[in-house]
Structures are given as structure tokens and as C-alpha cells.
Amino acid sequence: MRKIHYTLYREDADYVVQCLDYNISTFGSTEEEAIANLKEAVELYLEDALEPSPEITGVKVGELAIA
Hints:
This protein has one helix at 31-48, and strands at residues 6-11, 14-19, 25-28.
């Protein structure tokens, strides 16, 4: 079993979830739905993937102020 990393945030009425290991994102009306949708999307992507999976470590989420 492979673990993936993701970020989850609220955007208007939906929850958006972005995979950090692959360029995949999706959404749902609840956090649970968004995460389930991401799991399904990544599984489908990996079925057809030709490249080896990257090894992601040391994930941090931050916030920056910009002018």
C-alpha cells in the first residue's frame, strides 16, 4: 500500500483537495467526499502511469503574506 500526501482547503461551498505526489486535484461537498474523490482519482491515474512514483518526504504547509 502506498501513502500519498495532500492538502485540503475550503473554497466557497466545496472542499478542494490537492495531491502533492502527483498533479491531481479534485473537490467534494464534504472533507470526506473530497478525500474519497482524490483516492479514486489517484488510483485511476496509477493504473495507467508509465513513470515511477516520486518519493515525497518532509511535507510542510505554510502561509505567506504578499503585497
